[in-house]
Amino acid sequence: MLFILLTTIIIIPTLLGWGKFLEGTFKAKIFEGISGQLTFGIFGICVIWTVLAFFIPLNLNVEIPTILFGLFCFFKEKLYLKIYKFTKENYVLSAITSAIIIFCSSFYPYILDHFGYYLPSIEWLKQYGLVKGISNLDLVLGQMSLWHIFQAGFSSFADPFLRINAVLLIIYSIYIIEKKSWLQLCFLPILLLFSQSPSPDLPVIIFSLILLNEILSGDKNTRFIFAFSLFIFAIKPTMIWLPILSLLYSVFIIKSTLKTLIPGIFILLLFFMKNIWTFGYPIFPVPVIDFGFIWKPDAELLKSSSEYALQKTYDNQHTYAEIQKFSALDYIKNWLFLDGIKSVINIAFVLSLVIFTVFTFIKKNKIITFICISLIIKSVLVLLFSAQYRFFIDVFFVIIFVIFYTYFNQKKSILIFSFLSILVIGFMTFPTVLAKFIPSYRMLSFMGKFEEKQWYKPSIYEYKKFHSFEVGNLNFNVSEKYPFNFDTPVPAISASFVFDYQKAGIFPQLIDTNNMRKGFVSKKMTLQEQKQVKKITEEIKKQYKF
């Protein structure tokens, strides 16, 4: 906890300083208050680092100047007086929320993507920046979220334990208190479940609720609203509904000119460029708009990935061949009535959309109508591609927020926040208790227990067992008897991908043997390389026999 507190003490003034600097540079504000400057700081640093990551690694050479400049602006503009005034006026609530956030974020990470996607992405960004064709080495790395760029930039010094989401939650609590948006305080305990990992799900949920609150409050700063909505989309493309909503709001309610959309278009182009550089196509993982780049992934692997995503829609309870035989009714029925808790989530999702649609008809409010249209478009797209609950979890928060927007005062919200916080803390401290009641929720089995060392530093896993291999001009590592490469030295390939490459008859190779930053391509294996890979897969199989 002590380390997370120190991280917060370094990063928040840095963001505040940058936010103030960007406000002066662009003669514009995201919104008023400390939280507005902090949000501007996140937005600005993230965009700058994304551009830099094309050319240099996000290591200490980037982090230290960023922190020093932010702290310089922080003290030059006497922004510490703003923090003092805020904490003096809201001492009890801000202290309690911050303490709860820091405590919960000190637990072990348990989200599986943390080990298979978040940590490897951050390690590549720290050592090399954005690497061309990285998806040829490990397909999931092709998506490299802007949030992982943001985390990577602070991970060498200020946040070595990767708890940037804890800092974001504290910023969110500041926004709630400043704006007196008390309903959002009720969401805070649920969001604590994302605080141990640099999960991009947390920032997109938080930023979407902030943006919604600004829109419902009548904010006319459409230049920011549209640009920020695309920034959220760039963090996680399943948030496609936000750019749709902000565009409808800007054009049909505020009557903005096309000029106000320019900053947002720049963010969108940056997002496309980042994806093309790492994946070969503008939107990960969809192979549309083919520019013919040599570093695009092999078509056979993309097909396998698409098939796997469809199986994940049904929680791997049906094979791809079985799903292909489904009738239209089977697609819906089998998705709604999966075995376990995911069936409850899917049914709740459909019911929520139905209830919100009825609510929209009753209210006859133009903004709410646009929100409803945007959510339905997003839901249809998710259902078509891969209807996994993690892709539509934000919809629940949005619907609850809009329906109950005017019904919660400070007293009610603090009571709910307190009750839910006790439940979440209890759940995180004793996860095995809940596991007995919800055995189908497999994530519970990955949650580590509370340890005394958490009082001074957050818990992290260490494995560091791997084997090194060589195929063609590529020397790589594979984690020993473990599916993920969260602390395996780069370049690392997941064991499952080695088998996929063997099946497809291709293997990743360096574009330039002497410079890994030049990237990777997929090449058809020679007979000698096929023998090498066969030997590797046989060795991997042996590991799992013991």
Would you write up a description of this structure?
The protein has 546 residues and is mostly helical. It has 23 helices and four strands. It has a two-stranded antiparallel ribbon with strand order 1-2. It is globular. It starts with a helix and ends with a helix. The relative contact order is 0.11.
**Inertia-based shape:** globular
Q: What is the arithmetic mean of pLDDT? A: 92
Oligomer: single chain
How far is the first residue's CA from the last residue's CA?
Answer: 38 Å
Structural class: mainly alpha
Share of residues in strands = under 5%
Q: So how many helices?
A: 23
- Radius of gyration (CA) equals 23 Å
- Note the main sheet: 2 strands, antiparallel
Widest sheet: strand order?
1-2
**N-to-C SSE string, H for helix and E for strand:** HHHHHHHHHHHHHHHHHHHHHEEHEEH
Q: Indicate the low-confidence ranges by residue numbers.
A: none
The number of distinct β-strands equals 4
Helix amount: 55-70%
